[in-house]
Design goal:
There is one protein chain. Helix content is 54%, strand content 0%. 6% of the residues are buried.
């Protein structure tokens, strides 16, 4: 997901929502802790973007994106005027 976003590709919302659901399930089944999942996600983010999630969203990024939200946003699409006004 992060690799696609780093390349400028779109990622369907369902892919992010599924990842969030899997993270929630892993936590509920005691397969991983929030910290372990956040570390794994940060590793994937670093591989794709070359920097950590905290570098792009701040050290308190989990305050804005509570677990299990994944901070995965595509680039803003360019907007071109459709009239000469």
């Amino acid at each position: 997901m992060f690799s696609a976003l780093a390349a400028g590709d779109d990622v369907p919302p369902g892919q992010r929502l599924r990842a969030e659901g899997m993270m929630e399930a892993a936590l509920l089944l005691d397969a991983a802790s929030v910290e372990e999942l956040d570390r794994a996600m940060d590793d994937c983010y670093r591989q794709a973007f070359g920097r950590g999630i905290d570098e792009d969203f701040g050290a308190d990024w989990r305050e804005f994106y509570p677990f299990p939200q994944v901070p995965a946003m595509g680039r803003r699409a360019p907007v071109y005027p459709s009239t000469r006004d």
